[in-house]
Amino acid sequence: MPDPIETTIKKGDLTVGAVLSGNRNFEGRIHPLVKTNWLASPPLVVAYALAGNMNINLASEPIGHDRKGDPVYLKDIWPSAQEIARAVEQVSTEMFRKEYAEVFEGTAEWKEINVTRSDTYGWQEIQPIFAYRHSLMKCRQHQHLWKIFTVRGSSQCWGIQSPLTISLRRAVLSPTARRVDIYKVGVVERKDFNSYGSRRGNHEVMMRGTFANIRIRNEMVPGVEGGMTRHLPDSDVVSIYDAAMRYKRSKRRWR
């Protein structure tokens, strides 16, 4: 989302919406600042994009105007059942065989990528995308010392809790990920942060991405949005990642 639009949304405290063809429509699904997300079929997503407005009745209002200035309605561009049937008739098994025959060959651009021929991955000390885990955390022997980080309501899913689509460029503005830009992911330009999903192979990034949705609410900290929790026993309100690190450093956990 362009910075001027983000600034306008924040300044006006606006509730803006998006239309997507997917299977989840929770707050912040498309962008942290987009609170309302509506599920629709792919053609309707295109129609709303053409209209450029959610506050429209596609059944009775035009989605735009042609070169002559005449209104164009959804019914004017929506394919008929006959048109769809004719298109389906053109689909053949041979089309798929042809496309998949060289699926592993790759495009010309793919073939031009310079890669190192090796049986193993060349791990680097600082790697923005992938990071080698030198030691596995031994959790089971300390199960009796586990701490509560979040108390959630209903209608939860993994996408709400640890959203891979959340932009790191926006997430670094929140306490949950304030150090993720350079801490053990290499020096990455802000414009190249991309999303948590693009760096899911780096555990240092994903540890900070756990419960990093800036719209989630934790009943342990009423009235607060984002991946925050209450550190016990001092009751400090901190990011979930910071709380985890404090518990890890604390000698109390071994008692």
Automatic annotation (TrEMBL):
This is aconitate hydratase. SUPFAM superfamilies: Aconitase iron-sulfur domain (SSF53732), LeuD/IlvD-like (SSF52016). It catalyses: citrate = D-threo-isocitrate. The keyword Cell inner membrane does not apply. It holds the Pfam family Aconitase_C. Its EC number is 4.2.1.3. Its cofactor is [4Fe-4S] cluster. InterPro entries: Acnase/IPM_dHydase_lsu_aba_1/3 (IPR015931), Acoase/IPM_deHydtase_lsu_aba (IPR001030), Aconitase/3IPM_dehydase_swvl (IPR015928), Aconitase/IRP2 (IPR006249), Aconitase_4Fe-4S_dom (IPR036008), AconitaseA/IPMdHydase_ssu_swvl (IPR000573). It comes from the Bacteria. Residues 17-52 form the Aconitase/3-isopropylmalate dehydratase large subunit alpha/beta/alpha domain. The gene is acnA_2. GO terms for molecular function: aconitate hydratase activity; iron-sulfur cluster binding; metal ion binding. Residues 188-254 form the Aconitase A/isopropylmalate dehydratase small subunit swivel domain. It comes from Escherichia coli. Keywords: Iron, Iron-sulfur, Lyase, Metal-binding. The keyword Metal-binding applies. Belongs to the aconitase/IPM isomerase family.
